[in-house]
Fold these 2 entries.
Entry 1:
Amino acid sequence: MENLLANSPETRTQPAALNGATPVLRLTNIEKVYQTKTIETVALNQVNLAINRGEFVSIMGPSGCGKSTLLSLMGLLDEPTSGVIELDGRAVTSFSDKELANLRNLKIGFVFQSYHLINDLSVVDNVEVPLLYRKGMSSKERRQRALTALDKVGLSARTAHFPGQLSGGQRQRVAIARALAGGPEIILADEPTGNLDSVMGEEIMELLMTLNRRDGVTVVMVTHDEQQALKTQRVIRFFDGSQVS
Amino acid sequence: MQRAAKHDVLIIAKTMLRSYLKIAWKVLMRRKFFTFISLFGVSFTLMILLVVAAMFDHMVGPGTPVKRVDRMLFVNAIRQQRVDDHGWMTMPASIHFVDDYVRKLKTPELVGISTGASNATAFTKSKLLPLDVAYTDGNFWQIMDYDFLGGRPFTKAEVQQAQQVCVINEATARDYFGSTAVVGRTIEIDLKRYRVAGVVRNVSAANFYAYADVWLPYTLSSEYFKDNRLNGVFLPVLLAPSAAAMPAMREEYRQMMKRVEIPNPKEVKAVFSYADPILAGITRGILNHQDQTMDDDNLDSFYLIMGGLALLFMLLPALNLVNLNVTRILERSGEIGVRKAFGATGRNLVSQFLVENVVLALVGGLLGLALAAGALALVNEAHPVAYAHFALSWSVFGWGMLLTLIFGLMSGVYPAWKMSRLNPVAALRGSGEQK
């Protein structure tokens, strides 16, 4: 048991504050409260955490503990009720919608549990979506970058296919290629293996780890799977909206 | 630096437009039922509008023989207000009125007259030939631009001498003689014989001022009275030297009316008459003013009513499209969420959905044009109006496309705006929750 603990990700944690480098993402005193007419729900309570460049972090916890809310805040898709989010050392709290959209486009890639591919677009067109909003990029360069991203996930032979023609694992690979295409600093993956069987889930996990190891992409992954979480460098655990480890 | 930025913006716009068009086409093809309903609404409405516009254009637009319609004023009636509230008498003008007043106007380049077509009969060897006969003067033929297949119009001299000459249309020539090369031959109408001076192409019966099967000198008309009555059967047409001279000519006519002597003041209190452009003449006749002594051609009211009706007519399918679009867009909330997550701004998304809608509306518009062309072909085939050939003109086509674009924008702006405000997290969940 002690040995297991000695090798557990928690013990390998090296928060940015300790090694002195600026974290790619830092959340300070984050609170997220959902308010309706009759009820107030605290989704996140006083969250403080930092994600270092090149890290592979997993976020774990039971359903409804605030994992996905946290990922939305990290991805600048939602605003905290209070607290500060810093991306690359810059607080984004006062940014306009347009500035946030631009930051998401340049620095963040998303991978969703249900893939969220656009069924009307081919694989390569799906991967090009983030690049459509990139200033000054020619269609040739866009296509090249999409093909490179597809090559990285091993789907070079499926570029002209449509999502409906692919297996779940292949769709998630396309989604990862799409997240990679824009060359983001951080990939946020919300239960990327949640809809896949164990073999395919394993493949996707391997792919994310390879991207992290080989290309130095920072990955933050929400997961329910303890085994997969243990493969990452750090596990952050949540319970009832609070960080417990 | 600025040029480089402009270049970037152009590249992005071009790239996005191509991508939007691609996805627009795929969405339309994927949702065939939705596409059909939307297209049906747009194209059917446009078809009706285009057919009505084509008919309207045919009636009041420039066309043979009323080519110079922008320089013509028409006098449809002399309205006499009787004494002691005995009502009104409205009839066309008499020759006395035309000769002593209208022909003495200074501004018109030419003043001509015609009558509305009246019934007459001719007999061929085998059948009875019902004809519409109109009476005109020599100037009339110079104001109107009839296509002569042979011969010539009758001259001023022939009119003055009340010679038994006529101009007939192509259909009459064929029906009566079996040929159009009939100049100099004789046609018998209502037991009177006339020498054919010329043969013209058929003129649509929708063209009130120019239509007839046979034209005779007005001096042969049974309504040609030489006394000083004001009412008769004649419709003066005034040709201005230029379109710019139209207001002056209209005003001179107005002033002229103040000088008109009432021949029977014991019976008639006042006389009113107006020289109007073709459409204003119609609207003055149709939309009667409560106070008939008021000089109002009701053209503004006509445009207001027609514009309102057209807008209302367009509004219904547009609202239907808005409704369908909101549903369709919310169905695609996942896509909206993804695009927002990967950096699309609200403006990007509004553009995308507007492009989709405009593409849909334009396809609907083109279909509407095709349907309108088909409908007009059927109408022309059925000959509801003698010799009328309704056609889609380029101006009607242009208006059609403009209306279509307005359609696309009208039905796309609200759903696109609503969609652009979707919260990305909610959109990804598919709940359609607004920011």
Entry 2:
Amino acid sequence: MVPLSWYLILAAALFAVGIFGVLARRNAIAILMGIELMLNAVNLNLLAFWRYLWSDNLTGVVFVIMVLAVAAAEVAVGLALIISIYRRRSTVVAEEIDLLKW
Amino acid sequence: MTLAQLIFLAAAAVTLVAAIMVVTSPRLIHAGLWLILSLAGIAVLFILLDNGFLAVVQVAIYIDAIAILIIIAVMLTRAVMSDADRQINRMGLAAAFASLILLAGLLAMVLQVPAASPAPLVEAEVNLDALGRALVDVDGFILPFEVASVMLVAALVGAILVAMAPARGD
């Protein structure tokens, strides 16, 4: 059987890759992709802990389902915002969207 | 090394390489396709964790809905940012450094988790019947379930409103 720590190490690496994407990419859609990677890393962690430590109750699985629902809502709203910004200001580059920046 | 470990290593390598390609690929469409591969790798890991149901959900929601939505958004907004433009901002090195520090911190924490052997499941798979009942049980998860459904409706209606074409002269 696969040791629990392997899953945790993979999830940590995936989270770090995702946060690099969020911090470094210029395109707002690429930033959303980084967020999806981070959410997936969290899901992997939740499910690994559920399987190895608490497989007798369903909290871990329900938590993953909630994360999926929130991710779907997040990506829908995020992409709608990006498309709206694209229509009004013709840009998807995060650093050019600075109307509220002082 | 057992078969499960070999499958884990293969899926983990695919997931991680695809994830790195997602954040470094200069062409955004390719990044979206790599994202699909990465999510599929996660689905394989869900099956390894004896949860075929969530693997199917992962494919149906993440790959079918979210990744396709992202790719469509990439295609809709292609005109303003060509693939030849710089894709990494000027803080790229600092971002890499910060994520490496985060990785080191996470690993230091993760390696303190005591080794655990998986408890044998009562059934071979997650008990779908019990999961369905728990989601609508007053003693279970009915509140988060209902809140999540209301939130999804609100988010989707809000997304339609936000993405609606601006009125003329706006």
